[in-house]
Specification:
binds adenosine-5'-triphosphate, 6-stranded mixed beta sheet, 21 strands, sequence-specific DNA binding, alpha/beta, Rossmann fold, coiled coil, 23 helices, transcription regulation, ATP-binding, Sigma_54_int
């Protein structure tokens, strides 16, 4: 297959020369056209569909084309012969003469003219815009002949001077053909690599695209088009600008321009997507950005990623004056300065709230608060976890469920956590020591999480704050349900203070919520008492289940249940009878039966 070349000659003579030489090049398929600067560009555009491999041109025209065409542009050089020829021609000129050219040409001309023992005045130009002014000055000095490149000569003629073009000779054009062949070989190798990468990107589930600052997409893989619901091959359908797809595109570009990676979360077609923006490459004229898109939903079964504002922003929003609670807050404030922090305590004690307060207290602030919950300790969850963490910069990560991984994965993640830059607050239901004893965490993770750990006390340990919490939740629920409840009856409060609160503040909030929902007046009245389970702080378990030996007789089983309920109700027979759904008299009779039996 021949290499397809478009040769754009800035002057007629070069076109003729190129045409005569083109036929000798058996491995090149050369199209030759004449055009200078913009004119040449217009010719290129007209022939764009012919898919040339390489463009050949000269001087300013080659430079202009290089900025506007995707193919490599090979330049026809000015050889020593070219200069020699021109100097030989002009050396006997009678008129006053000056050469106007770019530094590389001037240097060569000076060297050759010294060899030939001729003295030719010259002016060096650095950009084309200077040419016209220099020609005017030359004219004022009485110069009659200008020696230079096509643009210079054109302008010299415009100002009524004689122009002598430094023309490219045969050997320069042939050299350009050779150069084009070399460039093509390099291009072939690069293309092979490019195609391999393209095939890889094609297979990738993740969406990848390349766009400029205005969000115009120049490349997208099928994954990207699937996520964005852009159907058809690129080019077939007009790619919408990313500005239309992501309303906060410009602010993300801003973040990226400040040398950060920008991450955002969008919902498209019911899918929660994470997209990351970064600078891909800067070329001479514009910045290119890459966009990576992946679905969070797919990973949700193993690792849940929630990206939201923390529930509170400062320690002053954490309620409670009980000693235990205050101690926890003081410890958390101190631990806030650490890179890796552990919070542990029963479910619903407010660990996430404390994490939010830590995040809010940081100076300088972190950009993100991200909640990562390990649902299953699978290898998939592990790689997603490290992947998610490496995608976050300048964030506070609230991480739950590390104990679900096996010891080896825990060790790997421990080393990983130490190296990553974000603040990580780990949350556990039990203390590091208890988890180590039980084998829930291995030695390496234990060492990591026991360094800066804070115990968040259960509600049972801060019962003096119960009233305050209830009032706070009533206020919250009034707002939710549009009620104006101002307080709670003492009987209800008393029963609540006897309750076990295994679900802690979370359970309390739910209970207050149900009270507020059904209350008609300004107070939470005794009619809600039936909604409080009669499970006291000393009960065996919150759900009220106990193990019974079913090898006993029915009567013995009944007796066992009665005794257990009685014990839980501190031997108060009325309360035990009520819980068992029998009258006090029946209970008394049943108790008596055993004594007699
Ligand atoms: N300081 C607080 N003031 C008011 N309400 C709070 C406070 N801390 C926690 N809560 C309430 O308790 C609920 C549970 O809190 P949070 O989610 O922080 O608990 P957690 O210990 O992280 O729970 P889990 O271990 O189950 O994830 C919150 O939804 C909120 O209603």
């Amino acid at each position: 297959m021949k290499i397809k070349i478009l040769l754009l000659a800035p002057y007629r003579g070069l076109k003729e020369l190129a045409l005569s030489l083109a036929s000798e090049q058996t491995d090149l398929d050369i199209t030759v056209k004449e055009g200078d600067l913009e004119e040449a560009l217009a010719i290129y555009k007209h022939l764009e569909n012919e898919k040339f491999d390489i463009i050949i041109s000269r001087g300013g025209t080659a430079n202009l084309l290089r900025d506007h065409v995707p193919q490599p542009v090979v330049e026809i050089p000015l050889s020593g012969f070219d200069l020699l020829r021109t100097l030989t021609l002009v050396k006997d000129y009678k008129g006053k003469l000056e050469m106007v050219a770019f530094p590389n040409i001037c240097d060569d001309v000076i060297a050759v003219s010294h060899l030939m023992g001729i003295d030719i005045p010259y002016t060096v130009i650095h950009e084309e815009l200077q040419v016209e002014g220099i020609i005017r000055q030359a004219k004022k000095k009485g110069v009659q002949v200008i020696v230079g490149d096509t643009v210079t000569i054109r302008l010299a003629k415009k100002h009524g001077l004689q122009g002598v073009l430094i023309t490219s000779g045969r050997e320069s054009v042939i050299e350009a053909f050779h150069h084009a062949k070399q460039v093509y070989q390099v291009l072939l190798q690069a293309n092979k690599k490019y195609r391999a990468y393209e095939a890889l990107l094609h297979e990738l589930e993740e969406g990848i695209a390349m766009a400029d600052e205005q969000g115009r997409i120049s490349f997208s893989n099928p994954g990207f088009r699937r996520f964005m619901q852009l159907f058809g091959e690129p080019g077939e359908t007009a790619n919408p600008s990313l500005v239309e797809l992501f309303p906060d595109w410009m602010s993300m570009v801003q973040t990226v321009n400040e040398n950060k990676k920008a991450i955002s979360y969008v919902n498209i077609g019911g899918r929660q997507l994470q997209w990351t923006l970064g600078i891909f490459e800067e070329d001479r004229h514009r910045r290119l950005y890459y966009v990576r898109i992946k679905s969070l939903r797919d990973a949700e079964d193993e690792l849940e990623i929630k990206y939201a504002q923390p529930p509170v922003h400062s320690f002053t929003q954490i309620l409670g004056s009980a000693r235990e609670g205050k101690k926890a807050i003081e410890q958390a404030k101190k631990a806030a300065a650490e890179h890796l922090i552990t919070l542990y305590g029963e479910e619903g004690t407010g660990k996430k709230y404390i994490a939010g307060a830590i995040h809010g207290s940081l100076e300088p602030k972190n950009d993100w608060f991200i909640e990562l919950t390990v649902k299953e300790g699978t290898p998939g969850a592990l790689s997603r976890l490290t992947d998610a963490l490496s995608g976050i910069e300048n964030g506070t990560v609230y991480l739950k469920g590390l104990e679900k991984f096996d010891e080896l994965s825990q060790a790997a993640i421990s080393r990983w956590l130490e190296r990553q830059p974000n603040k990580v607050i780990m949350s556990f239901k039990e203390s590091p020591e208890v988890m180590l004893d039980k084998g829930a965490v291995g030695q390496e993770l234990y060492e990591l999480i026991s360094k800066h750990s804070v115990y968040i006390p259960s509600l049972r340990e801060r019962m003096e704050d119960l009233d305050e919490y209830i009032r706070y939740f009533i206020g919250k629920c009034n707002e939710k349900y549009g009620k104006q409840i101002v307080g709670i009856r003492n009987d209800v409060l008393e029963r609540m203070s006897e309750y076990a609160w295994k679900g802690n503040l979370e359970e309390l909030e739910q209970m207050v919520d149900s009270f507020v929902r059904i209350s008609k007046g300004h107070y939470i009245e005794n009619d809600v008492l039936s909604l409080i389970p009669s499970d006291t702080g000393k009960s065996a378990s919150r759900s009220g289940t106990v193990e019974i030996d079913i090898h006993q007789t029915l009567e013995e089983i009944e007796q066992e249940i009665i005794q257990r309920v009685l014990a839980e109700e501190k031997m108060n027979q009325s309360r035990a009878a009520k819980r068992l759904g029998i009258t006090r008299a029946t209970l008394w009779r049943k108790l008596k039966e055993t004594k007699n039996g």
